[in-house]
Amino acid sequence: MLNKNNLIKIGLIMVTGIVLAILNATLGRYQLRILNLAGIYIVLGLSLNLINGFTGLFSLGHAGFMAVGAYASALLTMSPAQKSVNFFVKPIVPFLANIEIGFLPAIIIGGVVAAIVGAVLAAPILRLKDDYLAIATLGFGEIIRVVFTNTQSLTNGALGLKGLPSYTNTGYTWTIVIITIAFMFSLRRSSYGKAFMAIREDEIAAESMGIDLFKHKLLAFTIGSFFAGVGGALLAHLMGTIDPLMFRFLMTFNILLIVVLGGIGSISGTIISAIIVTISMEWLRFLDGPIDLGFAVIHSVPGMRMVLFSLLLMIVILYYQHGLMGQDEITLEFVKEKLKRFKKKEA
Amino acid sequence: MSYEIFLQHLSNGIALGSLYALIAIGYTMVYGILRLINFAHGDIFMVATYVMFYGVTMFFMPWGVAVVVAILLTGALGITVERLAYRPLRNSPRISVMISAIGASYLIENLSIVIFGGRPKAFPIPEFFNHVSHIGSISIPRANFFIPVITFVALVILLYIVNKTKTGMAMRAVSKDYEAARLMGINVDNIISITFGIGSMLAAVGGIMWGIKYPNLIPLLGLMPGLKAFIAAVIGGIGNIKGAVLGGFLLGMSEIMIIAFLPSLTGYRDAFAFILLIAILLFKPDGLLGKNVTEKV
Amino acid sequence: MSILRTDSITMKFGGLTAVSELSLNIPTNGIVGLIGPNGAGKTTIFNMITGVYTPTTGNIIFDKIDITGMKSHLITKNGIARTFQNIRLFKDLTVLDNVMIANHLRLKSNIISSVLRTPDYRKKEGHILKKSILLLEQTGLIEYKDDKASSLPYGKQRKLEIARALATEPKLLLLDEPAAGMNPQESIELMEFVKEIRDAFDLSVLMIEHHMQVIMGVCEKIYVLDYGVNIAEGNPEEIQNNPKVIEAYLGVDE
After folding, report:
1. What is the reported pLDDT for C182?
2. Residue A337 has pLDDT above 90, yes or no
3. Nearest residue on chain B to C46, judged by CA atoms?
4. Per DSSP, what are the bridge partners of residue C94?
5. Which of A295, B64, B160, C56 lies 20 to 30 A from B210 at CA?
């Protein structure tokens, strides 16, 4: 059990923990928010990477499953008083009116509900291929959003939910991040992970090797939806406000960008690019505002930031299809290999 | 519901269906040739409406001239998108091409927000289309008569091109077998460009008429009609031009009729098309007029 | 004793009859060949046996079970494995992973214990690993264990496909043109290899092949197909002297 590799892993987790603790103590509120956001995007990116990168199912409905997790958890953590303030157009359904539970169970329930919705919706369409699957899942995202906009007594409709308890903090987020990362690495190493990848490589061959396509695709989709729901729950309790418009296709686009930039299928790539994308999305906010060049002032151009990100996605897919990492991982072996090459170059 | 009100809805349904049909043709042609969902198609459609807007209000073009300019510029935009976003990925996995298509769509949308601004603009409607016919107690705007006629004319021209000209023959050849067509000396890249050009020009025609009917212009206006037109193409049998038209009419008509007959479902309007899509994919994945294609093992 | 029997199976695609009233009988531990001109319907037969297509009429009995219309992966579980005419390996995965994946169907762990790596799962995974390594040794692919499947030379890729099929623990192995693209020397080696695995793994083999040398050298029984119809069956000698077969292959003088 306690061989060298495991010790290094435990060491890594501890170092990450210490770094996070220091960051948590020193960073200002705004930076902490970005740190949390980065963590949430890691969870979301990894969950899409599982469906899309490991299993090869091109799903575009992620925002919908996030919405399910976000709403399910928010309705459980909000105080009865806060709910009655929110639901002034139409009262909330009685069975949710007086419930108030802790954050952790709410996150888990959010994930589970998202997983159930994901499984139920995906089951009939999993035999569709490529772009048909993509457009059908995109449809699911939209359907979920439309349903949430119209079920006034359950979701408060277009008004959304305001005044969520701001439970999300560095501790919650990053504990979940580390668990998610460990889960993904372990899953990919396992026989199930390999079966997922076999499906990505060649469905027909995978099936003739005895892999039950339906069962495994459904598994991948359900687990992916679970983590999307968990990410949604964290995001909801970071923002404090949710409404159906938050979960438009734009949200899925951001997550897709993270996965593509990191290298479709790579866990470490997704992690790195989630951090890069989150930070630069915040950092580039100035692009949307007026820019003072000293000699002239460019008027604020909202949308400039997203132009840049769309361009980035296109450039990556056109010229660097492997993204940051391809399908590689930053493992101990990978680092050793790079170091060796580096030393050789030096010599 | 009275007979008159039904007729009123019918006329709206036909108009909306014609618009979906025009956009759907572009999807179906591109899919037929490249097996690719051109996600940017809805945005190309949107750009046409803005070209009209700026042509008329900023460059003071006569309306007719602006129409021609809009159709040509939109065609050029379609060809450009193909050159830049799809051509470099001809031999890449389909997932990459799809991501590129999504990227192209987003780029056009966001550039439009930057260039045109996010605030809604009013589409310039010529005096001619302000006329409303009153038949009994119902009132039908003139556009509702013209939209289906123009769609029909466009369809006839397109079918002539596809079935009777040499270019059309080459297009059909490329969609049947890309490699074989290349070996037969067809310039496949050119044919693909022409396909994108024609599809985008039809989208422009659709966009202009859309503007007349729904004159509120925003940079994201192409998103929903684009997705729905794609769904229409799938319903009709993707790759099949007549199927796209049929699907467009079916979808437009049923959207309007469902709201007419079940007003309580109005809020679910945008979900309806997707539900229909999923139902079609499950029970008749090749669409109403599509051909059955199975993968060779 | 027969391991596989087809009772006059027919496969129609629209108006086209790809296979017509075909009755095959594969003896247990036998090596049976399936030959015929291109487009005779040979691969269609494989696709019916492995559940890719369901025969329009007729039944397929495997090991006393009616597998007609059964799902592909269940047929594999019951003990039929195949290779593909145009190699279908998991290209981006390693040679070892390709073989290990073929063991997944026999894994009796759920996904949770697999991700948590419970002692029970680790024991099972260790067993699969050992088994896969052994299989790679038996098939002479062990030195490529950590290479990407797509980086192997062509002949080795064909061999890996067979190894992968063997990993599912089949009782019947279907080989779709295993000697395609091989030179005479490699073909002879392949013949030996097929016999070896039949004995080592105690299974039966049905193979489609165009190399007559291979077919005649290794098969105990041969079926000849032309336009979806079985025109002859028998041992190699009988087939070689059958006028109908010669006609199908060479045509007739008019």
Report:
1. 85
2. no
3. B297
4. C148
5. B160
